[in-house]
Amino acid sequence: MVKDIKVLLVGGGIGSLTLALLLERANIDYEIYERASEVKPLGSAITFGPGILATFKQLGIYDEYAANSTIVIDAKTRNQKGDIVMYNDYSMVEERYGMWSRVITRPTMYKILMDRIPSHKLHFSKKVVRTDQNAEGVMLHFADGTTAHGDILVGADGAYSTVRQCLYKQLGIEGRLPASDLESFPYEAICLVGVTDPFPPGTFVHEKGPEYSRFEAMLSDDKRFMWVLFSMPDHSVAWMVITNQEGTSQKADDPARFNAEWGPGAAESMTEFARNLPSPFGGKETMERFINATPKSRISKIMLEEKIFDTWYDGRTVLLGDACHKLFPAAGQGGVCAMQDAVALANALYAMPSNSPEDIEIAFEAYREERWNFAKDAFDLSHNFGKVTRPSWTSALLLFVLQRLPQSLWVKQLDGLAGHRPQASFLPLYEHAGFVKPLPLTDFAKVMQDKRTKYGKLHRQ
């Protein structure tokens, strides 16, 4: 392990905070730089399953996460008449993989992570305007005129990552950026999200009990709208309303996206529209009850983009989470993917034998190779789930297929998702329960040694 190395993390999201916790446990120095004046964990709910929960156990956050989340045992999607058009059964998850998938509000998950980050490691109001790197190190230039120096730069600053833009600008000048990475950043949907204040106990509970999440959605007859409710353990309800903008796209360098992403601005008109939608929980109620119970500060609007970038690193700079793969939220894979990125990158950094440019490049290459196929699978899954909510003949066909999908094929798909259960190699390993065992863990030290041998041979030829 490299003893003297400093990692600069740009962005204060879930992926960045997870990486910070892992670096803390690995005794690797780091600093986090966030453009906002404070972290405002807006959003609705987020689901975590077997693919990341072993890491939660390793980091000592699982018990708090479980106490503040509800078990996902099923998910129902209805049409506007209230008939169930799609039912997803997760009742076998604990038996097969050893732990339940659970849904938790984003604000609560942020708090669990933030509470474990030393305050002196977090720097707010630090807007990156330029990055520099060479064989000796990296430098961040901030809008306030200050700078920060380190050995490695991690861009975990979201879909419209400044770090990625700086990296790609230089690669473009040098003619080393693939054409696919220059293409516009498409989005086909807009999402309104929020979390209510707590309702009286027992107001909205799953038929199996309050420990389970009442996870129900509605799909409009024209497939242009989908809205979802999730019951939470504190008796609040997380909600989401998605409207499709078929065929729309937006360039990745548009600064207006920074103002639209995860903020309450421009949300009022969509909020007024959403009030009249019928409640997925049934009865004569509408979404107005949940919107009225949600403070305005907890309602936000976001463009739902989709893209997986080809270039994840160069020199001493590497990307993580939405900065290199932005997923549609329909399948709940975005947060899990960002955290799995963090595990793989932490393992690669821990296994580095030196801080040389060559070893850093090898570590980044090993990280991308570990994550690429899994990230692509998650991207494809999220994209296909998103198609269900879009007004097209393919949507109708996909919904028809999903309605008739045999349980055995559904379970096989879940087995595939749960196969990748990474853990931090430098922490005591969690022994998985359940009878479906995970894929073998990658030995990053061996992978990197093999790459160093190959690298040396190439340079001696």
Write the layout of secondary structure elements.
Blueprint (H helix, E strand, L loop, with lengths): L5 E5 L3 H12 L3 E5 L11 E4 L1 H10 L2 H6 L2 E2 L2 E5 L5 E6 L3 H5 L4 E4 H9 L7 E2 L4 E6 L4 E5 L4 E4 L1 E4 L6 H12 L11 E11 L19 E5 L5 E7 L5 E8 L4 E2 L5 H5 L7 H7 L13 H5 L7 E6 L1 E2 L4 E2 L2 E3 L5 E2 L7 H18 L5 H31 L5 H11 L3 H13 L24 H17 L1
Parallel strand pairs: 1-2, 1-12, 2-8, 5-14, 12-21
Antiparallel strand pairs: 3-7, 4-7, 5-6, 9-10, 10-11, 13-16, 13-17, 13-18, 14-15, 15-16, 19-22, 20-21
Family: Belongs to the paxM FAD-dependent monooxygenase family.
Organism: Actinomortierella ambigua
Keywords: FAD, Flavoprotein, Oxidoreductase
**Highest-level CATH class:** Alpha Beta
- The coarse overall form would be globular
Number of DSSP helical runs:
14
* Number of β-strand runs: 22
Fraction of helical residues: 25-40%
What is the assigned CATH homologous superfamily? FAD/NAD(P)-binding domain
Count of individual domains: 1
CATH architecture: 3-Layer(bba) Sandwich
On the 0 to 100 scale, the average pLDDT is 87
- Profile the largest sheet: 8 strands, mixed
Distance between the termini: 28 Å
Q: Which consecutive residue ranges, at least 5 long each, have pLDDT under 50?
A: 251-265
CATH topology: the name is FAD/NAD(P)-binding domain
- Approximately how much beta-strand content do the residues carry? 15-25%
Report the C-alpha radius of gyration, rounded.
Answer: 22 Å
Q: Structural class, from helix and strand content?
A: alpha+beta
Structure description:
- With 461 residues, the protein is an alpha+beta fold.
- 35% of the residues lie in helices and 22% in strands.
- The protein is built from 14 helices and 22 strands.
- The strands form 5 sheets. Strands 5, 6, 13, 14, 15, 16, 17 and 18 form an 8-stranded mixed beta sheet that branches. A 6-stranded mixed beta sheet has the order 8-2-1-12-21-20, with helices on both faces.
- Helix 1 packs parallel to helix 10 (334-351) and helix 11 (357-387) packs across helix 14.
- The chain is globular, with a radius of gyration of 22 Å.
- The two termini are 28 Å apart.
- Pfam families: FAD_binding_3 (PF01494).
- It comes from Actinomortierella ambigua.
